[in-house]
Records
---
Amino acid sequence: MSQRQVLQVFEQYQKSRTQFVQTVAELATRPQNIETLQNAGVMSLLRPLLLDVVPTIQQTAALALGRLANYNDDLAEAIVKGDILPQLVYSLAEQNRFYKKAAAFVLRAVARHSPELAQAVVDCGALEALVISLEEFDPGVKESAAWALGYIARHNGELSQAVVDAGAVPLLVLCVQEPEIALKRIAASALSDIAKHSPELAQTVVDTGAIAHLAQMILNPDAKLKRQVFSALSQISKHSVDLAELVVEAEIFPAVLACLRDPDEYVRKNVTTLMREITKHTPELSQLIVNSGGIAAVIDYLGDCKGAVRLPGIMMLGYVAAHSENLAMAVIVSKGVPQLAICLSEEPEDHIRAATAWSLGQIGRHTPEHARAVAAANVLPKLLALYMDTQSSEDLQVKAKKALKSILQKCTHLPALEPLLYDAPSNILKHVVCQFSKVLPHDSKARRLFVTSGGLKKVQEIKADTGSALQEYITSINNCYPEEIVRYYSPGYSETLLERIEKYQPV
């Protein structure tokens, strides 16, 4: 065989390998092909190609493996069991930038599925190689490494701590400052994934100066970057008063309120999530957001959206109102109650309705004035209906009942209470009757109205156990009226009158 023929054989071999990995990489982009590829033992065929002498074959083999691992945890596990990860980690340190991006992609694809698979990536020494890749000149390599680190950190505190211990955080903060938007996004996302697990991890992110750099990007025109920035600031804020105060001290208010009108719904959702995480801590932090116009802005936001994106805004209003009478009144004055009443009626999801019920309870529980504002929005019958509906989740029933009781215990607006006399079960009814027993002795107009509306008649029909609190409240109400009026509206009185007529002998 001549030298030319030998070269042709090698050329043909290289061409075949190239065609094979390119075809597999292409096939792996379509879910319907995955099972066939898996059954054909494609993993074991790709593995030796990671060590191929031709760089493009190495890169394409890694890309194909990444796409397969990305598809499901079984394939990701096959990569771990096939002992492919150590080779990828080695290549991260030794190969060119194209291969590094592909190798980091495989590590990310494996780590994303579960804490166990992410731990397998850590155990093969990937963290050190990924952190070193954050210092590469090529922004694409940095982006791929940051993405893999974020996917490892997001699962739990232990994995997140491992990422921190590998020295990733200062380099991720540097990546946030790079000019490339895609790199900024992924670095901010990774910082968010690290900070979310514990106050200590969030503090580690803060100690590297992350807040100031994140705060500078809140008005960036790129929506995907803003999503990640607000997510990271939320994850930092949620853990403690001190961390929330550090975020607020970056002077992001009132500038962030402009983002509640952003065209991107996830930007708007993440802004309200940030506001929720800040307001939940103290009255002072809530007051700061109230002073910046945050309440009105969130109420407008709730009117412009539907579904799950409403949830953080609904809860934020509840947290603000929970702190004090004045803050609850700020929500009322800004027309928060009618908007929450709309959410309660419109939203089909039980967990959103449960949060809305909770927030309304926080607003109405302070004083009779607060309770009246909630009752006037016709919220009480809706809460009762949700509590009594057997289709409601247990959480919704509990929250609706608790909200009802806390509002009822302060409500002295009798017209709003009267419909509940007819529908409420005894455990709620006693709170309704209790309020009537408090108000009627001191209000002659209310006493007259209670008779003409049929309320007194309804109270006489209530069956209460002797000596019970409900019986005491009914007695207190009856004591507000002449005995013959009470008798007149008592069940069976008309029959008694008819009997007397029959027995009556004219003179």
---
Amino acid sequence: MSRFIATRRLASNIFVSKSATRTFCNDAPSKLNDVPHGSQFNKELEDEQGFTNDIPQYDIAIVGGGMVGMALACSLASMPLTKQLSIAIIDSNPALTNGSSIKKDDPPDPRVSTVTPATISLFKGIGAWQYVEQHRHAYFDRMQVWDYTGFGYTRYNARDADKDVLGCVVENKVLHKSLLSCLQNKDFKKTIYPTRLSSMSLPTRSSVSAAGASQSKSLANLAKLELSDGTNLYAKLVVGADGSKSHVRELAGIKTTGWNYSQSAVICTVEHSAENFCAWQRFLPAGPIALLPIGDNFSNIVWTMSPKEASNHKIMSEDDFVKAVNHALDFGYGPHPESQVFGSGVLSSFFRPDVTSSANEGFELPPKVVKVASQRMAFPLSLMHANQYASKRVVLIGDAAHTVHPLAGQGVNMGYGDAASLSNVIADGVAVGSDIGEVTLLKKYEADRKTANITMMAVLDGFQKAYSVDFGPLNILRAAAFNGANVFAPLKKNIISYASGERRLPFLS
């Protein structure tokens, strides 16, 4: 019953008002040079650049300098209307300040992301994709998905949707480093604080009314951040990009809805004797296993299973793990889907001329794994959604706002979509002189992203539940869905477009 109530509460968020009223004011962006932390300012500079009593004042404070937080910073730095804003980035990750490099012969990292064409376009637009292409990555234009029952399979090809690629698999450290390189090469007013957020004071009506002088009133209307190294700063807008356990979300009093899955994911990098150019995913009784190409004869494994199985697979010998992976991707748990229950020929003749070219491609076995090329990591899976994305002076993006099941690799792409949307909303606010921290403006971002994110979460959660039950009639229905998606061109094109980051929904466009 509690799961049902939580699901209804989550679904109700779809009906978000699309209208919001702009709040106008004459609060011009504060002018702050990119200065080292701890620098001393004389009184003239304080007055000119927005500092009061040695406490810096910023337009935006991004708490969390991970991939999504850095994407927001790069997006803001790339647009004419927002590149003049002063930005504080708060994160204790040494990668933000030590300038560490990635060598070509470095071993692959098990933490990777499958970025969609929409995310690739975002990276190209902000100037970060050129840095990604200097490191290991793998485009793929084919994908095969099949069921352990042997009843059906689906093959996707980029040409089915008139696209060049279906996506690109990139190590997270490469994406992060590329965004850092992009930001460092922009003329942008940023200050990186290599520390953590300790507390946050948000303005209230009483605090603003109690302020005496006009300057004090101005500060009382801002968010005040206290950092763990003793530094204080003010910001018109605080962006929580600090992950699923967001401290910003907690301090802002924003509640969440969600649940834990009785599953964990094991991830690692494996090696083949030849390079892999296809993304493979097989649904097994305990959860899906994905084999994703990352270049240089390497692929990434994302294997969902029970927590106990995950613990066992994490510590078993390398030889046993390689055997288990090949077993899961081959004959393990059931036969190959060579003969389909409904017959591809029957479906093809029924749907002609709306049959995709890839419908004529036969089932293929994925390449054999010959070696484990990285450490194995395991982490529990859950679904979480913030009941609201925005309040006065605070907004959430990425995992701070939502976490999803990794079966389709959409989590980080949802976060990049948040970053792109929020930067556009901020630019709209700057264009009309609006206060960028006012809730009426920020609710436009929430309205834009909440519907898209909840829809994706519902699709992924539905897949997770549909493939968590081994039941004869349900297996037949799943096989029908696989075979229908394989041969029916409009459906397949819609699925590819939606998974690629376009806003159209399957069946509705």
---
Amino acid sequence: MLRRVLRLASGRALVARALSTRRGGSTPGEDRDGKVSEIKKKIQSILPGEPWNPLYDTSHLPPERSDVVIVGGGVLGLSVAYWLKKLENRRGAIQVLVVERDHTYSQASTALSIGGIRQQFSLPENIQLSLFSANFLRNINEYLAVVDAPPLDLQFNPLGYLLLASEKGAATMESNVKVQRQEGAKVCLMSPEQLQNKFPWINTKGVALASYGMENEGWFDPWCLLQGLRRKVQSMGVLFCQGEVTRFISSSSHMKTTSGKEVTLKRIYEVHVKMDHSMEYQPVECALVINAAGAWSGQVAELAGIGKGPPGTLQGTRLPVEPRKRYVYLWHCPQGPGLEAPLVTDMSGAYFRREGLGNNYLGGLSPIEEEEPNPGNLEVDYDFFQDKVWPPLAQRVPAFETLKVRSAWAGYYDYNTFDQNGVVGPHPLVVNMYFAAGFSGHGLQQAPGVGRAVAEMVLEGHFQTIDLSPFLFSRFYLGEKIQEHIII
């Protein structure tokens, strides 16, 4: 069907040139228009289908081949694209295509995020990623400047994260802060008395210890980062296509392991991109595929045959990433915490931060496993706020007793059900599919570092800036969870 369309398009282009030549003659206007109309009628009588436009626009189609196809145009996919072009050995050496289903980003996790960044993690790798990203964001216009384009303003609010711990969690918090400081993060511990003195609007009942980020923590405008990355990579020659990846075509080879087992290795050599509002698809030959499809990265992995083998084998090990719906509520409280308020996370898991200067606040809570909402839509459950979010927040901040909810929205986490940490690097059997997914709500803040890590693995064959070996896919088969204690 595609060849037929291209043949017709080619024929119509020749006709268009003929019409153009005809118009260039000396025939008077009325006579010329009549002859053009007659020619059009004759052509329409021999070509099937509806009335046509002789100039068939193919600008929306992806190229026939690209060195790298990135599935997903959010901040993670764009960051990988940026670092591939930034680190290539000569300009134009790598052709990169980004395929994104929705260029409005209306349901993208990036656009629906609250934009937080913190170094308060328990894993050294997560801390290092966020420190790298903090430096990237602080110097954003050194990285993402484009000639003749205005500078980016991320509207960074460097007010820190404030995490609260009960008596039961105090020892773990102390241990976490020790690791954070060893990695170079500036975090302090506060007693309930110190907490009350610094933030008198907090009720310290039940709080045994607090940790407070003093530098490189806070929140920023995620939409600005997304658009800044997109603008920059386009200036670097990255191509974009609005469409959905529906199929991978692979070749196979067989090898034996040291134990004598035979395994099948697959290599993707063609990606099928279904065009928006069409039944047509465009095949794109490629050398590498980056799976940065966020909450849908598990489904994209399945298209490549990942997880389709016998249970308990590497071939049968799936990418354990799925969409999880999370609510964000916006409320107003005239007597609420002032402009110095950090992003506060209660020991219940409920969190909030200020939004602008008008005593508005954003917040939410991740539900327990048994109460996960249906991810099939992005409808908001306001009862969840009333029953689960408001009570712990009103206890922690008494002024919130009188808050008024103004609006809310829902977005998706690309939730890693195995250990809630990211998946970075190549698949061991589908050897040219690389992952940048599964960050379970931390993808936005860690995207700059993750993008560089994936690009290093692609270009050099190993991680260089930050060793993210614990985040490789193989841990799912080996059953080796990497335990992150601070999941918000």
